[in-house]
Amino acid sequence: xxxIGLYFGxxxxxxxxxxxxxxxxxEFSDLDEIWMVVTPHNPxxxxxxxxxxxxxxxxxxxxxxxxxxxxxxxxxxxxxxPNYTVNTLAHLxxxxxxxQFSVIxxxxxxxxxxxxxxxxxxxxxxxxxVYPRISEGTIPEQFKNHPxxxxxxxxxxxxSSTFIRKLIKASKNCRPLxxxxxxxxxxxxxxxx
Length: 193
Prior knowledge:
The chain is of the alpha/beta class. Helices cover 34% and strands 17% of the residues.
């Protein structure tokens, strides 16, 4: 049974930090594949700087096409809004009975996991792979040494999509932070200006 790690994000835009973490997770854990799950724009939130779903998915396609074990996923586009991870997992399990799904998250998300909808269900049924992040706060006791939580010593990536958008808006060069195809797409489409 193939083990799939789900890496959720708005990927606005996807950058080399995301790819480094995804690649590290698939190469240095027991996961066979990583699916980059593009989180849809919440229709109830004001537009802000979030690009349309199809543009963000297109950038993930462009970023991952040369990685055989990392794939884009638009699964949440088809699900009811707002998206809750527990619902997405249930849907995927139904659709792909031959695959075993787990969740990839940063240590910052682990600190607030107890606030997620039905987090106990997620912890009971799915493995969680955690990558390190520099962030405030501490990991709650209940998640320390939990049998379903694996901390993977991935590199700490302090690149953020917010930072990249600011650079583009200020006409600064952010090319080294993005996969080339993603940079070209952003430039072509005149995004984040």
